[in-house]
Amino acid sequence: MLGLGCLGMAACGTTKKVEPRIEEIYAQTHIAPSGQTLDKIVYKLNTIDSNSKFTKDDFKVVVTNTIVDWNTKEETVSEVSATIEKVTVEDNSLILDLANLPYKTITDITVEGQDDFYNSTFKDYKIMTKTVDDFKKATFKDSHGTELTYWLYIPKTQKNVPLVIWEHGGGEVLASSFEGSNLVASQGATAWIENGYKTAVLSVQYPENYSFGISEISDEMKKMGAFNTAKYELVQSLIKDGVVNKNMVYVTGASSGGGGALRFVMQYPDLFAGALVVSAKDTIVPISKKYDLAYQLDDPAKLKITDQQYAETYAAMETELAKYPDTIEVPIWFVHAKNDQVTTSYTSIMMEDILKKMGAKKNKITLYSDEEMEKGGVHSIYHGSWQLAYQDKDMLDWLMSLEN
Q1: Of 61, 46, 40, 42, which Cα lies nearest the Cα of 7?
Q2: I need a labelling partner for 216 at 20 to 30 A (CA). Which of 17, 135, 242, 274 fits?
């Protein structure tokens, strides 16, 4: 049974009662390799006896998940009883520690206590997310009138720090997602902070995604260039204010953000000390859409192009990169699943090889096998290389060791 102890009493043994009141309920989350993850439900009360005894059996937590099929867009709704690992009381709070649950698909949470006082549902909760809540949201308008919405983390009591710019994926654009999803969908923004690097982290959320064939779509390329200019001016303002070390500015991105990071480096190579580019969308020359490689989820043979197509694409990429010769001065670590069915690995393979021929000496490339992706927790659809990359301390250390 639920042990209320001295709940509701000013002190045990007195007759003066303090009516218990739930002031707030927090659903606490953190960013795991696969994204935002629920791990706690916390009841903040005006009074609770620290000697109160609760057990896991005093509560039942039921989570409703709604999953949308990637291909058919059909929704599947299911309920699961969450595993309560422990229940503790501290600082007027009742804390339910849960086994990790993917947050993205959660559409409802119901808590039932043997005492109805603790019954609650999702609508009652305030969402708290480790590290993400330390970012500050702001807007910036550059000298050309381009306006950005961005989130910035700055280490406390630190000045002249490194800066990591995180370029989020296409799934997190505002048109098809929600405000702030750029920080919670992966560890691209949080890994640096949680691994102890004393660095600032900047992330802009973009209004919409761009096409695989962006290099041939002038309006989209112009818009990407304008956003890059605005980000460049924003970073320069942080440098001027003494917040950021001009010799330690880095960029990392995944999927659409990986392709965006490549174009950012090409446009402003002097800004960057290095780049970590993960599962990059093909922004240099069209490949995926042109050869029908994107979203080929069933047949690995459809991920290949012919030798002639490879030669033609390689030559086109050589021509494009020749327009940006200073790109070779920026060390880039390319990361891709060899059999990525969403963004073709040809982009990383060709670009790394061409830059090497152009004179780049510090670039690296990692191509994950299907087996490595499976072992890293990415199953069937081998696109989420970021789930492995931002767990790889060697990659993080490499980037943060670079200086202009």
Answers
A1: 46
A2: 274
Query: Which tens digit of pLDDT belongs to each residue from 83-114?
Result: 999 999 998 999 999 999 999 999 999 999 98
Q: List, for residues 170-181, the tens digit of each pLDDT value.
A: 999 999 999 999
Report, in this order, helix, strand and coil percent for the chain, each rounded to 5: 30, 30, 40
| Distance of alpha carbon 137 from alpha carbon 13, whole angstroms | 49
Q: What is the DSSP string of 187-233?
A: STTTHHHHTT---EEEEEPPSS---TTGGG-HHHHHHHHHHHHHHHH
Residue 264 contacts by C-beta under 8 Å, 6 or more apart in sequence? 165, 167, 228, 231, 251, 272
For residue 127 the two structure tokens come to: 């969402």
C-alpha radius of gyration, the chain, whole number:
24
CB 25 within 8 A of CB 118: no
Residues 6+ apart with CB under 8 A from 88: 54, 94, 95, 97
Question: How sure is the predictor about 192, in pLDDT bands with cuts at 50, 70 and 90?
Answer: very high
